[in-house]
Design brief:
It comes from Paracoccus nototheniae. The protein folds into 2 domains: about 70 residues, Beta-grasp domain (Ubiquitin-like (UB roll), Roll), CATH 3.10.20.30; about 70 residues, DNA polymerase, domain 1. Helices cover about 35% and strands about 10% of the residues. It is built from 5 helices and 5 strands; from the N terminus they run E-E-H-E-E-E-H-H-H-H. It is globular and about 40 Å long. The N and C termini lie far apart (about 35 Å).
């Protein structure tokens, strides 16, 4: 199966029957997407498929054939190593405590800011509503997304 992973052509054999999460973590060795609930309800496994957030734990790997998948590892600039503005915004805004939800929050925020570079707090909350944070850092997460939006405008 051929697909694009983090901007690079990728080919895997015998992985089409796996979940996308199992393919990414177990076969390819990427640890950005996390196993949380296994039911597509918590958001820890979120990746971008053709730029849209997708729950990798409930998506069969075969569904990404010929498509583009971006994980947390693929957000940083491959040449300079500079973090994506959303990654930097979460660092600057201290948007996580334990960090388990961080992958899903960041990936969902990237998709949000790509389609709406200046969202309101309500729009940020709406976009992130299906990503669960057990630590309760919701206000810091919203502030981090606002910080990321400002960084994206500045670059």
């Amino acid at each position: 199966m051929d697909f694009t992973l983090n901007g690079q052509d990728s080919s895997v054999t015998d992985g089409e029957r796996l979940s996308l999460l199992d393919l990414l973590r177990d076969r390819i060795g990427l640890n950005g997407p996390k196993y949380g609930c296994g039911l597509g309800q918590c958001g820890a496994c979120t990746v971008l498929v053709d730029g849209a957030p997708a729950r990798a734990c409930v998506m069969r790997a075969a569904r990404v054939k010929g498509r583009s998948v971006t994980t947390l590892e693929g957000l940083a600039d491959p040449v300079t190593g500079d973090l994506h503005p959303v990654q930097q915004g979460f660092i600057d805004g201290q948007g996580a405590q334990c960090g388990y939800c961080l992958n899903g929050m960041i990936m969902t925020a990237v998709a949000l800011l790509d389609r709406n570079p200046d969202p309101s707090d309500d729009q940020i909350r709406q976009a992130l509503r299906d990503n669960l944070c057990r630590c309760g850092t919701h206000q810091d997460i919203v502030a981090s997304v606002r910080q990321a939006a400002a960084l994206m405008v500045a670059r």
